């Protein structure tokens, strides 16, 4: 069964299908010595394929193991494989591969941090990035300037950008002080600087932007800036099924790694439960204190504001009477 050349090369990790198409159009791909053309199909997996003069190993779709990394991108890193000025890129910290390449699922601006996915399956990356899939991306955004309800309604209803209308699927206020305000916003497209441009239409400036969610995958609090973590089989298949691809059957994540991940999740849940109990206890104490302050109670001599139960003398008074 023949497949389009760009699909085969994307699956081999040469890039997304769009990136591979650009390689073919630029005449950088050859098949059995002939320069490939966009639209060529590949019937023989043993064909000799070169990209920029380098041989490329290809495999049938059933032989390729789909791997996905979650990466916590720091501010300042570029979403490119190399930079002429020698600046750090998101690919610099990723684990090395022998027979494949990491393909980024979309991009983040240099000044944007947070969750960025990488996969060895270019077809998966291409489908996840396609606007028709409407995959949700959630960002934590800090803006500088006055923000009112009408401005938020405008952003949810839709505003005109230079490349067409855009909108936030959801906007949630998360607090702020003075002219700085923090929001969580959701978009379903991956246009260039879309979140920043949307806020700029309302006359405010984005001072910090961090992606915290892609689909149902959240940025782990355990993942340090510049750190990566390979997704397990269940998470990989969540992404594949979301874009109508066959489930993967193999994984490079070892049982030991899965156990460590399960233990860390258990610890996080225990910490959250402890914090909730502490918060609940503090709330009860605060309520009791407010009820106590509302009642008329005699004040003990000594520290200002110290209290004692009615009919009971303070320890300081008892110690004083024993000396007399």
From TrEMBL:
Gene Ontology terms: cellular component? cytosol
Q: Which GO terms describe its biological process?
A: enzyme-directed rRNA pseudouridine synthesis
rRNA processing as a keyword of this entry, yes or no, is yes
Q: Which UniProt keywords apply?
A: Isomerase, RNA-binding, rRNA processing
Q: Family, per the entry?
A: Belongs to the pseudouridine synthase RsuA family.
Q: Where is the composition biased (Basic residues)?
A: 260-272
Q: What is this protein called?
A: Pseudouridine synthase
Enzyme Commission numbers on file? 5.4.99.-
Region feature (Disordered): 249-324
